[in-house]
Every structure is written in structure tokens, then in C-alpha cells.
């Protein structure tokens, strides 16, 4: 099927082999991420946690797109980790936290991110200094925005959920940083074309 689509893109739309492969890669990424979100949301229906899952997804995307983090090279391992990540956030958000505890967690999260910065997948090219700075500044801005909202709006709906998304995203970012430093990551198959 993949080869047929590549042939179609090259013959009917006159894309080069590289352009056609990039289109296929983009379509695979869209399908992969969309299907994971649908599965995550579907699994939360019986537990009446759909709204929390939507909040987790929105907050996580606003941080993770620029901060990076752990990446898995297989769909099943990524889905499994995502399910665990969502479940832990939902469970932890059930327990109230003091304002001082929230403040401390947010300060530590921003401090850790400031020290390690964005973490890209080992499957992608390393960030240039300008990209690293841009992504770091964007992420710190978003973290500060959420921190101000969480600390000043004590009746914010899903306050604990948002807090745990931030803390656990930074924790898994720290894990990704340590894994890259120690060479502990899944075997990557390099592509000459992409």
C-alpha cells in the first residue's frame, strides 16, 4: 500500500522520491498521533475522565511541542507510555495539594527545564543554538503562564490536572535527558532519505 501511494504521488503529482517519502512520513505521523488520542479518549469514557483527558492533551501539547521529551520508536510502546502517563496524572489529580506544594513543584519544574532545556528525539537532527534558545524561551513562557494561572486562580477548573501535567512532563523530560546522556534508548533505524 505504501509503495502504491509513493508511486501515485510520483507519477500523478510529479513529486520527487524524497518529497513523496516526506508526504508519506507526515501522513503516518498524523495517523499515528490521531489514533493514539482517539484510543486514549475512548479508554477514558468508562471511567468518566474524558474532560480530564482533553485538558491533559491540550496542556501537554502546549508544552511538549517545544520542550520535547521521551520518544519511542514503536507505536505500541509509545501508546503504552501515553496511557500510563494519562492514568498517573488522572490518579494524582484526585488528591488535593497545598498552595505551597504547588508553588514548590512549579518552581522546581521551571528550574529543571531551564537547566536541561528542550530534548529532541535521537531520530531527529540536533537543534541549532538558535532553535534551542527559541524552544527554551517558548516553553519557559508557557510554564510561567500556567504557573501564574495556577497560583493566582485557586478555583481554576482542573487545577490539579494541569499541575500534574507540568510536573510529570518535566519529570519525563529529565528522564529523556538522562537516557540520552547514558545512551539508554530504543534501537533506532536510521533512514538515508529522511
Number of strands: 0
The assigned structural class equals mainly alpha
- For the terminal residues, how far apart are their CA atoms? 19 Å
Number of helical stretches of at least 4 residues: 7
Gyration radius over CA: 19 Å
Low-pLDDT runs: 184-194
In this structure, how is the largest beta sheet organized? none
Structural write-up:
This protein is mainly alpha-helical. It has 7 helices and no strands. The protein has helices at 2-12, 17-44, 50-67, 75-92, 99-116, 129-152, 159-182. Helix 4 packs across helix 7 and helix 5 (99-116) packs antiparallel against helix 6 (129-152). The longest helix has 28 residues, at 17-44. The radius of gyration is 19 Å and the shape is globular. The model is unreliable at 184-194 (pLDDT under 50).
Brief overview:
73% of the residues lie in helices and 0% in strands. The chain is mostly helical and 194 residues long.
List keywords for this structure.
mainly alpha; globular; disordered C terminus; 194 residues
SSE order and pairing:
Elements: H1 2-12, H2 17-44, H3 50-67, H4 75-92, H5 99-116, H6 129-152, H7 159-182
Helix pairs in contact: 1-2, 2-3, 3-6, 3-7, 4-7, 5-6, 5-7, 6-7
